[in-house]
Amino acid sequence: PAIPEAPEVLAPRRRSRQIKVGKVLVGGDAPVSVQSMTTTQTTDVNATLQQIAQLTAAGCDIVRVACPSQDDADALPEIARHSQIPVIADIHFQPKYVFAAIDAGCAAVRVNPGNIKAFDDKVGEIARAAKDAGCSIRIGVNAGSLDKRLLEKHGKATPEALVESAVWEASLFEEHDFHDFKISVKHNDPVVMVKAYEMLAERGDWPLHLGVTEAGPAFQGTIKSAVAFGALLSKGIGDTIRVSLSADPVEEVKVGSKILESLNLRPRKLEIVSCPSCGRAQVDVYTLAERVTAGLEGLTVPLRVAVMGCVVNGPGEAREADLGVASGNGKGQIFVKGEVIKTVKESDIVETLIEEALRLAEDMPES
Ligand code: SF4
């Protein structure tokens, strides 16, 4: 059989060294992975595992859980053991929880050098424990909790300050011959964040975890993250991503996956090509597109469905898609693989599209 062509991407990936986060490879030629973070109390093991299962089903590759107390640390072994995807423990303030997370079998530990007490003195010990356990580390520099020394030096969390913090902490791990770490330099301003990652990418071959921190509610956070990740990923920068939203983390995974799909960095799944409607529309395009999207939710095959409001661009787009409708005069012309297969009443368009989509999906490989 013919070898399928690799999808076109905007730039080759930056050459980063590869690390392992449990079973997931990060960096090098590994696919860019999607991360999210649980919002349950970590001590509530059942609720946390249930949310991890939902995130996994939505396409999450790696999950992070907060570990702010001893009770949370005590819950980690069970969560790490039963999670379907690698678990990263998120540690602030207390170095003892770093060791607890490593002992618990977490795939990785996120440390924030800016707010872990006497972190620099502990790096050797952390590096040894992590190496022995096959656990990787994320050095997670964050604008909101930058090291005080650097804040004083730079005046605020500039890209230079974020990068200086990250490079310093990376050098401490490297002095202890520990290299299984990735780095993030998050800021809530996409411009500062993009500059910081661009600078960091020039300074070493560390795998990079992208994030716009505290990006806001779903609408704003989606746009900020898409713009910032798009700017970096389109230059090949970024090995793993997390979209931070003040919303259900499942939404974070959906947005993150869609960003990667849009850039051909993850195989495309269902794609609805729908027109914005205009004064020429002869059907209610919004309702039509919404109902088709809802009816096909969860489809995991790379199907392109065009929902078009009139005959200007309708037949063209519908013909280009796997399946489509060009509407007009109370009717819809249904296209499959470029050919009109039937014309149906407006009231039957949604049902027909869903029926045909499911039929086509049966013969398609899952992406
Ligand atoms: Fe307007 Fe027709 Fe284009 Fe939709 S396809 S935006 S209705 S011209």
UniProtKB/TrEMBL annotation:
UniProt cofactor note: Binds 1 [4Fe-4S] cluster.
IspG C-terminal domain location: 271-356
Pfam entry (one): GcpE
Known cofactor(s): [4Fe-4S] cluster
Residue ranges of every copy of the IspG TIM-barrel domain listed in the record: 16-256
Pathway: Isoprenoid biosynthesis; isopentenyl diphosphate biosynthesis via DXP pathway; isopentenyl diphosphate from 1-deoxy-D-xylulose 5-phosphate: step 5/6
InterPro entries tied to this protein: Dihydropteroate_synth-like_sf, IspG_bac, IspG_bac-typ, IspG_C, IspG_TIM, NO2/SO3_Rdtase_4Fe4S_sf
Enzyme Commission designation: 1.17.7.3
Catalytic activity: (2E)-4-hydroxy-3-methylbut-2-enyl diphosphate + oxidized [flavodoxin] + H2O + 2 H(+) = 2-C-methyl-D-erythritol 2,4-cyclic diphosphate + reduced [flavodoxin]
EC class name: oxidoreductase
Tagged with keyword Transcription: no
GO molecular function terms attached to this record: 4-hydroxy-3-methylbut-2-en-1-yl diphosphate synthase activity (ferredoxin)
Record bears the keyword Iron-sulfur: yes
Entry's family note: Belongs to the IspG family.
Known function: Converts 2C-methyl-D-erythritol 2,4-cyclodiphosphate (ME-2,4cPP) into 1-hydroxy-2-methyl-2-(E)-butenyl 4-diphosphate.
Entry protein name: 4-hydroxy-3-methylbut-2-en-1-yl diphosphate synthase (flavodoxin)
Organism: Ammonicoccus fulvus
Classification of source organism: Bacteria, Bacillati, Actinomycetota, Actinomycetes, Propionibacteriales
